[in-house]
């Protein structure tokens, strides 16, 4: 979850960014020399990520893996790196000391007030260009709402679907599994006034 607030006014080289990330307590997105501090998450945000990680780990196929919000995603080599909330990949030969994923199959972002526009517009634009990506999933944390962008075949055409009921199931047909909406929101409490 990025606050989209630049860390100072200076430009950083990719090497400086990587060195900073090794020692920094905070995580930062990196975009063409600009560094953006990541905001902290809420209990709902964190619980949804845990629910997703547990569900995906238990259904993943051999050769696939799941990484949560501490793993960087390389969008553009040496130029653009972000921390998605969760990455599911069947296309990456990720080794123990690797610090980023290059070929995601699914990217999940849990929306917050400060990042919703960034996730829905900026990241969507760049994520759709990643050849290995089959699905981009946006999960609301204040209401039951899951938005799924699905690549049609191997084209640049994407289908958009929404899921707003706990009894619905999201089919990730290209990867051979389903994910019930109820599993995503298991144990999630909504504040009074939030849509349920």
Radius of gyration: 16 Å
The CATH superfamily bears the name: tt1808, chain A
Number of strands: 14
Major beta sheet, specifics? 6 strands, mixed
- What is the mean pLDDT? 85
In total, the number of domains comes to 1
Give helix % range. 10-25%
The percent range for strand residues is 25-35%
Which fold name fills CATH's third level, the topology? Answer: tt1808, chain A
Structure classification: alpha+beta
Strand order of the largest sheet: 1-3-2-6-5-8
The CATH class: Alpha Beta
Q: Can you give a write-up of this model?
A:
With about 200 residues, the protein is of the alpha+beta class. The protein has a single domain, classed as tt1808, chain A, CATH 3.90.1570.10. It contains four helices and 14 strands. It has a six-stranded mixed sheet, with helices on both faces.
Features:
single chain; 196 residues; alpha+beta; disordered N terminus
Task: Offer a quick outline of the entry.
With 196 residues, the protein is α+β, with helices and mostly antiparallel strands. The protein contains four helices and 14 strands.
